[in-house]
Structure formats: C-alpha cells, structure tokens
Automatic annotation (TrEMBL):
Major localisation: cytoplasm
Protein name, as recorded: UMP-CMP kinase
Keywords: ATP-binding, Cytoplasm, Kinase, Nucleotide-binding, Nucleus, Pyrimidine biosynthesis, Transferase
Cofactor(s) of this protein: Mg(2+)
Protein's UniProt keywords contain Lyase: no
Enzyme class: transferase
GO biological process, one term: 'de novo' pyrimidine nucleobase biosynthetic process
Species this protein is from: Quillaja saponaria
Positions with a binding annotation for CMP: N97
Pfam families named among the record's database cross-references: ADK
Length: 190
C-alpha cells in the first residue's frame, strides 16, 4: 500500500448519455478501473445495508444521495483496488458532492469527460433500456433530467472554468462516440 494519489477521471453527462457504455470501452483499451457511483449505490441497496431503504427511495425520486454515503463507497472501492487509474462515472452530481470529495480524498480529477446529448435522445435510450432499473420510468426520468440541469450542469461549468472539461457529442452511434473518447485518452493528449 502506498500513499500515492490515484489518477481520477470524472465521467459526467445526463441520464442515458452513455457514461456506462463508454466507460466499459475505456476500461478495455486504457486500463482504467470503472467505478459507477450509481452501480455502487444499487449494490448497497441489494446488500441489505442500513442505508439501503433511504438510497432506494432517493433513486426512485431521482434525488442525489447524501455525499457521505457515496464518497464512502467510492473511497472503499479505490482502496480495495490494485489499480491506480479510475473512471468515476456519474459523480460528482452537485457542488456539495464535488467539494466534499475534494476535501475528504484530496483528489482532483485529471480531467472531466462530458457526454453531451439531447434530452430527446437520452429519453429514447432510457425508455428502451431493459435492465429493470426502478428509475427508468417516464416520471422518474423527468425528475432525473431536472436534477441534472439544476445541480449537475453547474459542476461541469465549474470544471470547464478550470479548463478540465473534454466535451463529447454523445448523440452519435456508440462506435463514433468512442472514436472521440479514444482521441482524448491517447498518450499525445494526456
Ligand atoms: N446507449 C448508450 N450509448 C448509446 C449510443 N451512443 N447510441 C444509442 N444507444 C446508446 O446507456 C443508456 C442506454 O442507452 C443503454 O441501453 C445503452 O445501451 C444505450 P448507459 O451507457 O447506461 O448511459 P448512462 O449515462 O450510464 O445512463 P444511466 O441511466 O446510468 O445514467 P444516470 O446518470 O441516470 O444513472 P446513475 O446510475 O449514474 O445514477 C442513478 C441514480 O443514482 C441518480 O439518479 C441518483 O438518484 C443516484 N446517484 C446519486 O445519488 N449519487 C451519485 O453520485 C450517483 C448516483
Ligand atoms: Mg450508468
């Protein structure tokens, strides 16, 4: 175990913008470990943890789970991993998430991938996804969009003002989006 800080890339974008899909591709090509905050929270519900019911209710309402909970899960996953390069997918979702993560972990992202996609396209993708996610119904999807616009976009703006955002047109087919992603991760760029 070393104290060396891991390399972290935040992967942000609206619900259904393709964060999970593209992270799986990045893992294959660039040796990162993928940490989806949403997946970690859903695993916490399944594990029957004492926070499970609270997390489940918040996800059903499209609300942002208290940052202590999410940060603890992310920190555990980072510590348990032998890797030192992480894609943190779907976090931070608001300013408080962002500030708390920096304060607790002292980690600043190398850069932020932002998957930019229209709501129309994201809605189409989420409604045709068949993973049995409790938040993939039209009522919850609308709430997720609203929270993204009001709380998550300001985080992207914050990192944009620091020159850290790599914005990608995520409304195209998966392979085309990944070509743009690859260009960002290729050694000449970082
Ligand atoms: N698809 C993907 N790319 C495509 C493309 N280019 N063309 C056509 N189809 C494409 O993709 C979604 C669907 O679209 C899939 O069927 C895919 O095949 C297809 P996916 O890669 O899953 O998109 P993603 O952006 O990962 O969508 P997801 O639904 O996971 O995004 P959310 O941000 O809504 O979900 P997340 O799991 O991050 O969070 C869920 C909830 O957890 C939040 O609403 C919140 O309540 C809670 N949460 C917190 O409270 N705090 C956190 O830090 C994180 C989550
Ligand atoms: Mg996802």
């Amino acid at each position: 175990v070393t104290d060396k800080k891991p390399t972290v890339v935040f992967v942000l974008g609206g619900p259904g913008s393709g964060k999970g899909t593209q992270c799986a591709n990045i893992v294959q090509h660039f040796g990162y470990t993928h940490l989806s905050a949403g997946d970690l929270l859903r695993a916490e519900i399944k594990s029957g943890s004492e926070n499970g019911t609270m997390i489940q209710n918040m996800i059903k309402e499209g609300k942002i789970v208290p940052s202590e909970v999410t940060i603890k899960l992310l920190q555990q996953a980072i510590q348990e991993s032998a890797n030192d390069k992480f894609l943190i997918d779907g976090f931070p979702r608001n300013e408080e998430n962002r500030a708390a993560f920096e304060n607790v972990t002292k980690i600043e992202p190398a850069f932020v991938l932002f998957f930019d996609c229209s709501e129309e396209e994201m809605e189409r993708r989420l409604l045709s996804r068949d993973q049995g996610r409790e938040d993939d119904n039209i009522e919850t999807i609308r709430k997720r969009f609203k929270v993204f616009l009001e709380s998550s976009l300001p985080v992207i703006e914050y990192y944009n003002s620091k020159g850290k955002v790599r914005k990608i047109d995520a409304g195209r087919p998966v392979e085309e989006v990944f070509e743009s992603v690859q260009a960002i991760f290729s050694p000449k760029n970082e």
